Amino acid sequence: MDVLYLCSLILSIIVSVNCIMWTQEPNSQKCLREELQQNVVVLGEYEVSEAPGQKIDYVVRDSKGHILSQHEDVSKGKFSFVTENYDTFEICFVSHVPQHQRGIAQEVSLITKHGVEAKSYEGIGEAAKLKPIEVELKKLEDLSEDIVQDFSVMRKREEEMRDTNESTNSRVLYFSIFSMACLLGLATWQVLYLRRYFKAKKLIE
Asked: In angstroms, rounded to a whole number, what is the distance separating the alpha carbons of residues 63 and 16?
């Protein structure tokens, strides 16, 4: 039981939950970006303080500009989406204030969950009639799979960076050799040219 408690504690530390709060200035935009793996469920919950006559919209999109979730004039709500590819995703909140009105700052809070934390294990446990310990073990199993997948992606990116580094080193070497050859060729040409010039002027024999 102590081992299970310890594992649950580690799980609560590692799972990906982001909670942030900021002050949205009138007619401004605030974007939050994060890199996510493929087929990751993302849940979000937001709350915006009231300001008469003002409104705040939010939009979720990927690096290619595809809109995954969007809503206008929000106050409090939730959103969710599933990533199709490994990409950088951004959540933007945009403030709009009428021209004739002097805007005031609004408080915005955002909670995002993805990975293990985004799954409803209570519902999974009830559907499969699992015991609480079995539900916790299921969480740990999914977390282990996520960690293994993250390490696999990190290893792949490290290999790509190493290949790029080796390719860059080779190109720099070839460019250095080419530059040295050009400098030696130019120096030789200058010596021969000056030699002919001085001979033509009969300054040297």
From this structure: 21
> Is 12 a residue whose pLDDT tops 60?
no
What is the reported pLDDT for 127?
62
Whether 182 is covered by a domain: the verdict is no
- In a domain, residue 28? The reply is yes
In a domain, 77, yes or no: yes
| Beta pairing, strands 76-82 & 67-71 | unpaired
Please give the Cα distance from 33 to 89 (Å, whole number): 6
pLDDT in tens, 86-101: 888 999 999 999 988 8
d(CA 30, CA 59): 11
